[in-house]
Design brief:
alpha/beta; Udp-n-acetylmuramoylalanyl-d-glutamate--2,6- Diaminopimelate Ligase, Chain: A, domain 1; five-stranded mixed sheet; 33% helix
Length: 253
């Protein structure tokens, strides 16, 4: 399999073309490589010097990320951007990015992975962003203690997450939009959701959530967007026989 064949495969499992008009990210091949077979595919959340180096040291021909280098506008190839492009070209490492299609995917996406980990039931789309639903909602079979849910997802210490416990102490309905989606809490309020889960916190929603009586759990942008990348790597290995590896480079944010 070469890079073009890998691209065709990814477009069969992720709705890359369908999201082109909604997503500012340049989904797909962002940096090409020379012709030749692909045998090792590295995966990481972010395109950065560290993920490039780890992928290269492992011997990967392709690095797949959730957050790529190109976001819908031209960038001068100077400074850090030049160094990153130069590294990829010098090491013949292709860069492949999938942003919103990976968040929204109902089988291997970031949001459904979190929902499955919590064993939510009756899953359905949630969270309209630029006219398309990218999140997910579901319910627990019976109400769960709010703090137990937070600890199960992100760790036992309150330092591992940020919680606005403004609603019921026991929650049943849950909506999830990974990453930087604090404003989608307002949509959760409109739907009467007990708990909204996202990555990044925001001052702007604090009082609305307090007054509406909704619980909001912020687990960190990075932490909420590792699951889909890991599942993407696993599915690629299963379907194609290629060797894959996920590189965990947490930011704590």
């Amino acid at each position: 399999m070469d890079l073009r064949a890998l691209d065709r495969y990814f477009r069969t499992i992720l709705k890359i073309d369908e999201f082109a008009k909604y997503d500012s990210s340049l989904n797909g091949i962002q940096v090409d490589r020379s012709d030749g077979p692909v045998q090792k595919v590295a995966f990481s959340v972010d395109a950065c010097e560290e993920s490039f180096r780890l992928a290269t040291e492992w011997g990967a021909e392709v690095l797949c990320v959730h957050h790529g280098l190109l976001w819908g506008k031209e960038l001068p190839i100077v400074g850090i951007h030049r160094k990153r492009i130069q590294f990829l070209l010098e090491h013949d490492l292709a860069l492949y990015a999938v942003h919103l299609p990976l968040d929204a995917d109902p089988l291997i996406g970031n949001n459904v992975t979190l929902a499955n980990f919590l064993q939510l039931q009756d899953l359905s789309p949630f969270g309209i962003y630029r006219g398309v639903e990218i999140g997910i909602q579901g319910v627990f079979p019976s109400p769960k203690d709010l703090h137990t849910v937070a600890a199960r997802l992100f760790g036992p210490s309150s330092a591992d997450f940020h919680l606005l416990p403004f609603g019921k102490p026991f929650v049943q309905s849950v909506a999830i939009v990974s990453g930087g989606a604090a404003s989608e809490a307002l949509q959760a309020i409109d739907k009467g959701i007990d708990l909204f889960i996202t990555g990044e916190s925001s001052h702007s929603i604090y009082h609305a959530c307090l007054e509406a009586g909704i619980n909001v759990l912020f687990g960190g942008h990075y932490q909420t967007e590792t699951g889909g990348v890991i599942q993407w790597a696993k599915k690629t290995a299963h379907d194609t026989g290629l060797e894959t590896k996920f590189f965990d480079i947490p930011t704590g944010l």
